[in-house]
Amino acid sequence: xxxxxxxxxxxAISGLEKHFTRKQNGEVxxxxxxxxxxxxRGSFFTLLGPSGCGKTTTLRCLAGLxxxxxxxxxxNGRSVFSAGARRDVAPEDRPIAMVPQSYGIWPHMKxxxxxxFPLRHGRTTCSxxxxxxxxxxxxxxxxxxxxxxxxSTQLSGGQQQxxxxxxxxxxxxxxxxxxxxxxxxxxxxxAQLRAELRSFQQKFGVTTIYVTHDxxxxxxxxxxIVVMNRGRIEQIGAPxxxxxxxxxxxxxxxxxxxxxxxxxxxRHDGDVIEAKTAIGTVRCARFTTPAEPVxxxxxxxxxxxxxxxxxxxxxxxxxxxxxxxxxxxxxxxLGDRREVTVAVDDLVLRAHAxxxxxxxxxxxxxxxxxxxxxxxxxx
Length: 379
Ligand SMILES: Nc1ncnc2c1ncn2[C@@H]1O[C@H](COP(=O)(O)OP(=O)(O)OP(=O)(O)O)[C@@H](O)[C@H]1O
Prior knowledge:
With 379 residues, this protein is an alpha+beta fold. The protein folds into two domains: 11-249, Rossmann fold; 257-378, CATH 2.40.50.140. 22% of the residues lie in helices and 36% in strands. The protein contains eight helices and 22 strands. The radius of gyration is 25 Å and the shape is globular. The structure holds adenosine-5'-triphosphate. Adenosine-5'-triphosphate (ATP) binds at residues 20, 22, 29, 31, 49, 51-57, 213. Adenosine-5'-triphosphate binds at residues 20, 22, 29, 31, 49, 51-57, 213. Keywords: ATP-binding, Nucleotide-binding, Transport.
């Protein structure tokens, strides 16, 4: 039998825990609660979650800027932190480069000198001539060659972001840590730069751990997303897994938008769950099989994304499951689609309909929840 060699992950974290004590009142809070994951070499890995969920603290523990109370961190198979063994390798001795939210660009230096800083003072110092060649080549790669002699304060936000990235890449890190690097930019530039950042990452093949609270950014850029909430991991998966098969109500609601309806299991036949809810019986073909048997009466939430809710005319005759009579309460024309809000009895549902659908508030319609895309989430 052949031995399969499993490649070493670039980063492996296990059982990470970090408490903070508030100076004002001595209150202790758990910022990172039993966090563990592995990051494949060369991948783009995103920590996603709302403000205060512990993403930056996790990133700072990886960088060595924060010491965890428990847990282990290894990079390329080498332990850089172990609470048990009292090992905490200094940031400068870890194979990382970090771009902070503020970019950390020195205003009193020119663009070239900012980029050259790690080659002059870092762990990979080289001769002046070589440094010059490498810096100019890198500035060229990120489209800043012509700005080398400008003061860094004369750069736009997007250019400063590219400079920070160039400087980090010049350190030749094994792992690049990025903390919300696009958050100071306007929406249009963010969208442009996220594509650019992803293509730099792929070009350089550098393992990247990216922190953001922006679900659009996470879905667009990542190979793997970790969704965090209150210091804990809610779900780890590829963007499509997270979006199409959220593991919890929190993930369903935080990533994209979701219609959520409380209910209980009525019937379960292996492939399908029928849930009893306030609007009637809903068939769900998507669910994770829990460890314990699914018995009738078990509480759940039915989740369906607006793009899987079709708006039909009131007269549509159908024997399809998951079709309910509803009343339109609001519609919004968004150019590429119309967002329709309907009420089924007291329950409000959102649907994405054709932009030219003729539906007005007060109209009676039918709505169809696609069973294949209707998810049962365990409560
Ligand atoms: N130095 C600190 N002292 C006390 N509490 C802290 C400290 N740093 C973080 N915290 C707390 O730890 C929790 C997690 O913070 P963290 O900055 O990791 O969250 P985050 O998800 O990155 O949020 P944001 O997106 O707002 O940066 C928060 O409740 C925060 O108030």
